[in-house]
Amino acid sequence: MIVESFLQSVKDRNEPGWMNSKRLNAFVKFSQTGMPNPKEEEWKYTDVSKIELNNPKFGIVDIAIKSSSDKVIALPMKEAIKKFSDIIQKHFLISDSDKFVSFVHSFWDNGIFVYVPQDVDGGTIYSSIGNSTTPTYSLVILEKGSKLNLVEENTSNEDQHFSSNVTEISVKESAELNYFPYQNPSNDLCNLHYKRAILERDGKINWFVGMFGSKLSRWKIETLLNGENAECQKRGIIIGNHDQHHDMITKTFHMVQHTKGNTEVKGVLTDNSFSVYRGLVRIEKNAQQSDAYMGSHNILLGEKAKANSIPTLQIEANDVKATHGSSTGHVDEEKLFYLMTRGLDRNEAENVIVEGFVGSILNKITLEDVREKFKSIIIEKLRK
Amino acid sequence: MDKQPLVIERDYSRYEVKEPDEFVYKTKKGLSKEIVEEISKIKKEPKWMLEFRLKALEHFFSRSMPTWGADLSKINFDEITYYIKPTERKAPTWEDLPEGMKRTFEKLGIPEAERRFLAGVEAMYDSETVYHKIRDDLAKQGVIFCDTDTAVKEYPEIVREYFGKIVPPNDNKFAALNSACWSGGSFVFIPKNVEVKMPLQAYFRINSQQMGQFERTLIIAEEGSKAHYIEGCSSAVYSADSLHAAVVEVIAKDHAHFRYTTLQNWSNDIYNLVTKRAHAYENAIVEWLDANIGAKVGMKYPSVFLLGKNARADILSIAFAGNGQHQDTGAKAVHIAPNTTSTITAKSVSKDGGKTSYRGLVKIFPGAVNSKSFVRCDALILDEQSVSDTIPCMEINESKVDVGHEATVGKVNDSQLFYLMSRGLTEQQAITLIVNGFFDAFTKELPLEYAVEFNRLIQLEMTGTVG
User: Fold this and answer.
1) What is the pLDDT, as a whole number, of residue A1?
2) In total, how many domains does chain A have?
3) For residue B9, pLDDT beyond 70
4) A306 contacts in B (CB within 8 Å)?
5) Does residue A125 sit within a domain?
6) Which domain holds residue A329?
7) Per the domain annotation, does A238 fall within a domain?
8) How many CB atoms lie within 10 A of CB B430?
9) pLDDT value for B57
10) Is position A363 within any domain?
11) CB-count exposure of residue A6 (10 Å: 0-12, 13-18, 19+)
12) Which residue of B has its CA nearest to A299?
């Protein structure tokens, strides 16, 4: 991409000056950084070299937002950047950790902006992003003592593209966010997401993440527990079929004492699908009395299905509890046989077992319609 | 309770028998083609071995330092002496050793242990083996236990068939360094269906400062054989760092059962960068019992490649990191054949600012159906200054498998501590007891004499007073 056309595009956007300079800085980084290299640990199992970043064919992003409360501000980012520039500037923190983040940073065109004022119960917001190669940037702010359910569906607007997104979340003192991002476009697409939440004291976030669609998808989900008693629950479901490649990274940083983190990711892989789960729990030196659990479990249904997991603990404090568990295996033939003697065919029997396996996560989904949606996607994907 | 910090100092006095530098020859500092040629010439080696060394040296120079793991940036390869020959020839009896060496090994209790419960002993001092012996009845059964230099001369066919095949020189930078400079180490050959009931012991001692010890061990356990090899090590204490980079290759053929126990007790000025790997064939069992107490920095991940059906790997890795120490240890199990099993148990304790890292890999190849692997890591952090990482990696490329992993990191259980102290133990005694219990899985696998030695080592580590 030529510098002149980038500059022109920034100018055409008519955004506040500070955003122009953010975009320019990001573009410089973007131009100077190479594509992620498989030699870098985080990119070891995911090959993104085929994704064309330097000459992208931008398209249209569709944003739909439905809010149940008139006390919250929820609108497409494109409008928000003009109306709420000050708030956005204050919370726009993302730093360019790799070429994809700089790409989003430089070229984002739309996204979701949600602002829940102090002590407001924001109810439930349903949002949907119809993606294209044009990246999106979303910002979610929960002021002190506020509450919100945020559902985010990621679909696709085009047949062939890769989509990228950066989402920043700020959960202030005693606020609580239930966040349900999931992606389910067709298996021809690639998508890369980077979502990061920063929690203040007594803040709480519950992530319910669904990785269902796409040919290649990579979601990196980070939580910084910056205040005492901050708590993070991450629950993820990965379903792979055909030749799908899913790469999920979760990171939880315990920055101060008395923080709590719990991560549980379950994957079901059929056919030739592949998943890699990389988890990190880091407890900093002054984060004493923190409590962390990380679990990753996979069922391999397809004979050629593969699953890698790297659940890492970095513990710098001594008075803490940090544990992780991980398992990968196949469906027990005896269990299948038992179910089949009860009149189920093999596929149905497998589905029953899978339902029980992912059930421990599904049952924790606090919104019934999201739970049902996840369930129907899973059943659909595993149908032979 | 007003808790005061434990004042702990490592009592290494029993191992710190510093003898004046005794050597008959040493190369000049630094590493070059000439030095490697010189080592090979002194050893009067066959040409193929010199070529092997030089090729490895090229690889060592071309390969960059590992960017992961422990901090190795302070190693100055130019300040190290790569070969120090301590005696002109090997001693037929302990009595024949030069005084200083004899005193050292006696103080370490090696001759005593040989008399009491060992099937064979090999003692290495700086760069060369100075003593080796195997019981006559075992020698008559065809068991070979000698230093690898002797083996190159006396059993060239066997050595050539396996040497560098399990750990190729280009495996990693320090395997390349060892392949270029190797000297000493054990050669063990257990013939078909022979069981060696008592352990074979090797002891490695570094007496000089700023030296590199590069022992090279090759072990072949033929079909249906069974043996237990134990290695211990220690070093004189200096202010300048030394380097120990060993390569250990083990082949366990069908139905063989081989156990390899390490009690690593270097002084805190040694970089211990060791590559250990075993190939296990059908129905073979390979066990690594690996305890790392000493060294400044340790990077060691004993591994087993399960190449034959029903092969099994049991790896137990223990690490203890005190002030200024980083133990970056772990294990690897690579399942290539069907019905293979691996268990990895890792336990680590860090204190006084020490750091322990568990780094491990379980890899299952397509076709290794019905493989099972279970990994368990537990880390205790005894004080606020100390840290611990757990970095397991599981690559599962076959669906009909069962793989599990569990890890915990935390401090000594308060209720256990309270219980023991209510019974009249001091905090120091209580913690020592809990730590010893934590390592129980390891000590109960050791021969009694070693279990006592190990418990004493831990106690030494824990000696201190609660102020």
Assistant:
1) 59
2) 1
3) no
4) 395-397
5) yes
6) 3-333
7) yes
8) 21
9) 97
10) no
11) middle
12) B399
